Amino acid sequence: MRRYFGRKLLIYGLTFFVAVTINWMIPRFMPGDPVQSMLSRANVAQPAAVEAMRAHYTAMFGFDLPLWQQYLNFWGALLRGDLGISIWLFPTPVSDVIIRAVPYTLGLLIPSILLSWFAGNRFGAFAARRKWLDNTVLPVGYVLTATPYMWLAILLAWALGIVAGVFPVAGAYGFDLQPSLSWGFVGSLAEHWFLPFASLFLVAFGGWAIGMRNMIIYELEADYVNYLRALGAPARLVRRYAFRNAILPQVTGLALQLGVLVAGALVTEIVFSYPGLGHLILQAIQNQDFFLLQGTFLFIVIGVLIANFVIDVAYVLVDPRTRTGMGEAA
Amino acid sequence: MRYEALHFALRNRKLVAGTVVILVFLVAGLAGPLMFDHGPNDYVGPPMAAPSGEFWFGTTTFGQDVFAQFLYGLRATFLVGVLGGVLAAAVGMVVGFVAGYRGGWVDELLTMLTNIVLVLPALVVLLIVNAYLGVRSIGVQALFIGLTSWPWAARAIRAQTFSLRSRDFVDLARLSGVRTPRIILREIAPNMSSYLFLTFILLFGSAILIAASLDFIGLGPTEGVSLGLMLNNAARWSALQLGLWWWFIPPGAGITAIVGALYVMNVGLDEVFNPKLREM
Amino acid sequence: MALNVTDLRVYYRTLRGEVKALDGVTFSVADGEIMGLAGESGSGKSTLAKSLIRLDGRMRHVGGTVELDGAAMPLSDDDAMDEFRFRKVSLIPQYSMSALNPTRKIGRMVGELLDSRGERPDRAELERRLELVGLSKDVLDRYPIELSGGMKQRVVMVVSTLLNPSLLIADEVTSALDVSSQKAVATTLLGFRDRGLVTSMMVVTHDISLVYQIADSIMVMYAGRLAEKAPADVLVTAPRHPYTQQLVSALPEVGVRYEDRRLAGIPGSPPSLLKPPGGCRFRDRCPLAFDQCAEQPPFAEVAPGHLVACWKAE
Predict the structure, then answer these.
(1) What is the pLDDT of residue B34?
(2) Domains of chain B
(3) Measured between beta carbons, which residues in chain A are less than 8 angstroms from residue B219?
(4) pLDDT tens, A106-146?
(5) With contacts defined as CB-CB under 8 Å, which chain A residues touch B213?
(6) ipTM, 2 decimals?
(7) Based on CB atoms within 10 Å of each CB, which residue in B8, B19, B234, C20 is the most buried?
(8) Is 1.10.760.10 the CATH number for A2-28+95-327?
(9) What is the spatial order of strands in the sheet that C34-38 belongs to?
């Protein structure tokens, strides 16, 4: 088990290293003077601030230094938590901008991922043993999982928000409210949260349900199932065992799907102008705020790595083979 | 055996339905644009017109023909799907075959590389690359999609190769001095061709979805149209608030139909190739 | 008589039509008898073994009856068969290595299985029987992946016989093992019968020479029908059916499967069971074939306990 976690952590460490290196390298591939082009937008918006920023970034990039020195300096700044200063929200540090946005993204992602995973697996296992359900509901699952996240978000916003007028379609809370711990604010928060959550949940749900259904069908062909049936074990026991075994690849699948789910959350936030990381990315791109973009990128990578590790721990809890140290868990 | 596969293929409703949907959209994308004498982005009609006999899918806020955009957009969608899918499948196959066949430190190294790329969230990497480099043709978009979405395919192919590598016919080839690339091409790949094809279909679908997301965020091709770009424009120019449903429903429906059809095809093919899954 | 099979027909549904894998077999197995069941792949021996415990989705019970201890077994009624399974008839499958649920500790799995069948798990008895096959009770707290292949097989042997079935079907249990393990398994099976844990046994095998060491009788199948059944030593030393004769004369040393060597001495191959020819199915490959073979010979008793389906065997 120690070897299992050691390997995983090594991969995550390397991944983080690669991500930081990409972050460092990419501006150096930009045509022309990166500081100049990164500040070109700020030039127009806040002429007063530009000189200060130019000095800051020239020092940070340190183009007169040898490459390895530049690289080390970059890591140094990163480890001090210095991600630069946002151009879009000058002069707020990028890390502050991100930390303000993160709770919104997590508030969407965590419930939608967990609920869709549990509900989808239950439902998929349930559908696998009922022919009529399998034939009627499964196509819906395929449509859902093939739906681009932003399109379902747009459809829900249009149908339930604009046409029916039941839910608001922009922001995280009413424009007339200030964040506070009042019922009115929390209610508004929930109201604004529901549609983006629902669109994320539905697309992911379809994927899990189909995955589980297919896994169960494979499991029901397995040797241990045939043996149990030959010994007259009732369908109840067989299904319970099949579910228990089919859930393992679904846990691995959760790790594999994280990137897709995060991407889904980003575009969904954009549809609903939800002030999370997706919204930041859109603003960063539209305002050419490269520091914000890079900072958000690193934050998302770190988040995904942490989530992966959590899933690894969960996997060890559900799969006895990793615990006994004999299994070669992928 | 071939005959039997064909027999099941023609009788598999999922496979037939999926293929028909794909072919319909493919033909619409290839032939459809020929019926217009205007480009997809030309201002040809009254702004915000609802669907009518003249403009089947209505017009945008600026009076562009949504139907024309849709048909041209299908081309972009198929193109990015095929290019991205082929590239990802190619990288995945090379990495998977080599890692699975060679084993040892080559395998360790490639597996580590695979796992690293696997953990990195592809779309977010693409965002940053596209935003900085600013090169946004469909070809470049497909290139980057291909370069980021191969890992799971590589992993799956590696596992398959691993199990084939110790089979008799591979041993025989190795003992008779056949060189590695040739063993992989002649002995291993043909024995998992159905599996490779399934992998390609899934990569095709996911490339389409990734491209649509990039386009929607505003990092799509700067010239031309694509279905994702249509969604982006519709959202940007308040099609929702203005109630221009004909602007944002077709592109999303098109993507969903194509990707859904690919997935359904995939299941159908799986049933054809894998006798255990055939319904009795 | 423990097992009475009368004119049993089980067909496989395939694309091209029904494969008559088991086409009218009649035989019986006595109380306490260990019967070896031999034949090439496609002879119907596996179909016969499966039919007695559980038909798979493509198999259809077309006709004939099976009686076990005087009770008719409802082969085609999957639910009703549950009453017989495990208690009356049990199976040691070919896939013993993967027959145990990988995500349950073995003890818990056995407990849950017994529970689900309404039997009370008897831990002491279970441990005693594990000891019998040379396993410590610790295996009950292990996951299958922690055991070696041979250990898993022994666990399966214990589990399958836990309810003292009247008939135990051992399906190719030795084919995945090396020679010394094969012998150990054979001895264990013999021990089960001698201690009265199972009443009768049907040992399906590729390997006549191995089953010869433990079986009281051996039955040979060819192309969906019975060719010969005789006491083990008689069948090996004085077979009457020309197919058995060639099978036995080609017999290699213990442990080498004759299927691997191909029946070099017998030209041709078994007939297709899609549309099998009338008459004796071996006649195209039979050196003794003559006109009468166009008619199916009866499976007739030529000596006490020795039945042969051949016109020339009188």
Answers:
(1) 80
(2) 2-30+65-278 (1.10.3720.10)
(3) 285
(4) 999 999 999 999 999 998 888 877 777 777 777 888 889 89
(5) 148-150, 263, 266-267
(6) 0.90
(7) B234
(8) no
(9) C89-92, C167-171, C200-205, C34-38, C217-222, C225-231, C306-308, C300-303
